[in-house]
Prior knowledge:
Layout: H1 15-56, H2 61-79, H3 85-97, H4 101-107, H5 113-119, H6 125-138, H7 142-150, H8 153-156, H9 164-177, H10 182-185, E1 190-191, H11 203-212, H12 214-221, E2 225-236, E3 239-249, E4 254-260, H13 268-283, E5 293-298, H14 303-308, E6 316-322, H15 328-360
Parallel strand pairs: 1-6, 4-5, 5-6
Antiparallel strand pairs: 2-3, 3-4
Helix pairs in contact: 1-3, 2-3, 6-9, 11-12
Amino acid sequence: MSKDPTPTTPILAPEPLLADLRQLISAARESVARYVNQELTLLHWDIGHRIQTELLNNERAEYGKQIVATVSRQLTQEFGSGFNHRSVLHMIRFSESLPDREIVSTLSRLLSWSHFMEVIYLDDPLKRDFYIELSRINHWSVRTLRAKIQGMLFERSALSSNTDEFIKKEIAILRDEDRMTTDMVFRDPYLLPFLGLSDSYSEEQLEDAIIREMEAFLLEIGDGFTFAACQKKMPVGKKTYKLDLLLYHRKLRRLVAIELKIGPFKPDYKGQMELYLRWLDKNEREQHEEAPIGLILCSDAEPDEIELMGLDQGDIRVARYITQTLPPTVLEKKLREIVSRNSELIARREAMKQLESSGEE
């Protein structure tokens, strides 16, 4: 009687080979996905542009609605629901809001059609460009981009506290040089409800909560920040000062000193921060880095006072923070009040410049 043959042990492929093959497959899939996304995005732009320029340009509004409905119906019958009436309207808006196809082609290598859908209906072209460029340089997901827009990042950005010409110049620097400036990094106010603080707390409790929730704090402070130290000791003569937080911003290549204050801003905070920045510049700054910058975080600040002291520009900034968890409508109202107060200062500043210019003439 013959014996059953001894089972053979399966031959396993070498793990290094499998790892390399997995990497090749993943890279090929990502490359295909990027190509498909780019072609699909450009197709949407081309369709919107052709309809806008050849069928809708200078035509009556009612006729335009009818022709778009007819075109979308015919495209849907032939190519499916991706070309329905609503989708075609999105494509037309896409080509209108971003009229340069070459720029769209470049952006589509990094941003998806879903990214563009988040920004094309923003009413302000500068706001639209701001979110597009930050999405590109920071590799934001669609979900992150949507959260930034809902959180009014542009309105809270220090960039928005300047003239349109200044904003255009800053965005051009980001687009052409991939270089961020302090006005793009700093914002006012900062939203810190994740700290879980009660109505009454001390500066020590505020700092402890930030250290505990450092990841969430860095996400709110902005992209590019890394934690360096807390309660940084700075010996000066017989005294030793302590800086609340020291961060580093990779894009700016600068140390960022942060002081946390309970209550409204006080003028003497500026002198304190100037001392810290000079110490950091002398003792901590590396050769490849720019000069350190400072951020004074207060629960409140008077815009007129900040402007008078020159703290709305330069290397020391003052910003407010909100620790309460507010309903979305209440939070939006509060943010808009702060933005409105800043806008009033901009208008006054521009009016003074015009008066000075007319006086010189």
